[in-house]
Amino acid sequence: MCPRFLFLAFTAAVAVFAATLSPLGARAGDLIPETAAAQHGLTRPWFAQVGVDSGQGQLRDLVLYKNVLYAQTNKAVVHAIDAETGKTLWCKQVGNPRYPSLPPDANRDLLAVINSARLYVLDRLTGDLLYQRKIQDAVDAGPVLSAKRVYIPMSNGKLIAYRLVRQGEGKEESAKIAEKESLKGTEKASSKGSGKGSPKGTAKSADKEGSKGTEEGSAETAEKESPKEKKSLAEEKSPADAEHPPMLRLLQQAPPPVFCQSFGQALVQPVMLRNNSSEETVVWPTDHSYLNVGFIGRSAQELLTLRFRVQTSTPIITRPAYFPADPKVPGDSGLIIAVSRDGDVHAVQEKNGEYLWRFSTAEPTVAAPAVIGSHVYVSTQLGGMYCLETMSGKNLWITPHVVQFVAASKARVYAADSLGRLLVLNADNGGVLDVLATENIPIRLHNADTDRIFLADNTGLIQCLHEIEQSEPLVHDKDRREAAEAEEQPAEPKPEVTEKEKPAKKEKPAKKEHTAPKEPKERPAPKATKERPAPKERVKKAVKKKQAGAGADANPFNQPAGNAGKDNKANPF
């Protein structure tokens, strides 16, 4: 009876536990009911359960880029979820599950993940592995992506930038590198054949190279023959190309990665500022109370230069926020908003590092700031969120007991208090409009990009909330973001335009025009005018002397002059 009783008790416990689970395996107690969300003016369009090991697995990081939400577990598993429908786009094991992974970063095409001491670059929409590399130094913070590089902060203070070359870029360099590699391969094969090594090894290598050569030759002949054969060859090559995807490759023979040395340890994930054809600018803080800004210019692609650094009273332990420049104002500078550990808010111009304003909360701060339009939201560790004016730093309002900014819409601000509840605040004055019970949901995405609210727990349950009338996501500062992306797209044609303009600059008609006024040869004319009056004066003097009766003395040459000579002949005396 005792074993049977234990068996019945066990089955009853399992049934009760299963009843508390949703159809997708999520706990019903952690889900916000649709009816409860509607009472607060919200709707829950979807929820998803990320696969997590029930024993040791936990959900660690949530990253939102545009319309894709990336969830990373402590077992190096990355899930890509559609942020509007909750559909899983792909799920991949990225790295070794026994080693920790750092928070990832995404851009328009790529997703960068660091697991232990290796860098992985994936296609952010398909999850295909495009590139991986071993990192030599210790890494304490996640990477940041630009259009052409991936920046990694090191524990020794270095910021290293690895160049990423897409297919179609640098064709001449890739061709040269391919020729060098082929020459090296032939040299190695010939050296092995001429040496005293085993003939079997040389034969195998020669056979491999011969097979490669024949494959390449057959591919060339097939390209010349017909387009149908091209398609068949493309289908045959697709499995081999999976190892080297066509979208992105890193030239292994390219110059080594560039780096910039900063003072202290880089413990915070960097933030990308400018990312266009003219330059790439990135900001990262260190534990020695420095905020560093480095850049790579178009004229010096192999130099990562420190533009300026700003020293704060205490270290910055959270990611800075970036407010892009206004595209409608020529020469406008973006704004870097950073919060130090003692609660000071620093607003620094990205162009020259000059302070625009500074504000003190007088309380320790460990949460990252959020910049949305004309408002900056800063929450303190003890509880209290300040709303500051972006361009002046003026304190607009403060709401107590708030420890984290979550999201914002046109009229509302969503934040978490010290008890884990979700507060609905009035965007105009910070007053509490409503409270949602979310104490059992510890993970709240810091979303300063859209109005969507993303909540998750350690077991992998993710749910999305938004206002009922807001069916489409509200993108904050859309004009500034679109201008930055539009500036990044026409990156390649700009150097070509400057090359075409160079011959026009070589024409030198302007210099000839400048030399034309220089005519000093005509200056002797004034000298002639100075000499001309001299003989006239002498003639006048001679005439005066004649009239005065100077006689023969008036003519120093003893020559007759007019009537005076006739008179002298008539007068013998």
What is the share of helical residues? 25-40%
Q: Major sheet: size, sense and barrel closure? A: 4 strands, antiparallel
- End-to-end separation in angstroms reads 187 Å
- Work out the number of β strands: 34
* Radius of gyration, taken over Cα atoms and rounded to an integer in Å: 41 Å
**Main sheet: strand order:** 1-34-33-32
In short:
This protein has eleven helices and 34 strands. It has 573 residues and is of the alpha+beta class.
Descriptive overview:
- Helix content is 27%, strand content 31%.
- The protein is an alpha+beta fold.
- It has a domain at 171-192 and 207-246.
- The relative contact order is 0.09.
- Residues 14-28, 191-247, 488-503, 505-517, 525-531 and 550-573 have low confidence and may be disordered.
Task: Give the helices and strands, then pairings.
Layout: H1 2-19, H2 34-39, E1 42-49, E2 59-65, E3 68-73, E4 77-82, E5 88-93, E6 105-106, E7 110-115, E8 118-123, E9 129-134, E10 144-145, E11 149-153, E12 158-163, E13 165-166, H3 171-194, H4 199-225, H5 227-241, E14 248-249, E15 258-261, E16 271-275, E17 279-286, E18 290-297, E19 305-311, E20 321-323, E21 335-339, E22 344-349, E23 355-360, E24 370-372, E25 375-379, E26 384-389, E27 395-400, E28 402-408, E29 412-417, E30 422-426, E31 432-436, E32 443-444, E33 453-456, E34 461-467, H6 478-488, H7 493-506, H8 509-515, H9 524-531, H10 533-547, H11 563-570
Antiparallel strand pairs: 1-34, 2-3, 3-4, 4-5, 6-7, 7-8, 8-9, 10-11, 11-12, 12-15, 13-14, 16-17, 17-18, 18-19, 20-21, 21-22, 22-23, 24-25, 25-26, 26-27, 28-29, 29-30, 30-31, 32-33, 33-34
Helix pairs in contact: 3-4, 4-5
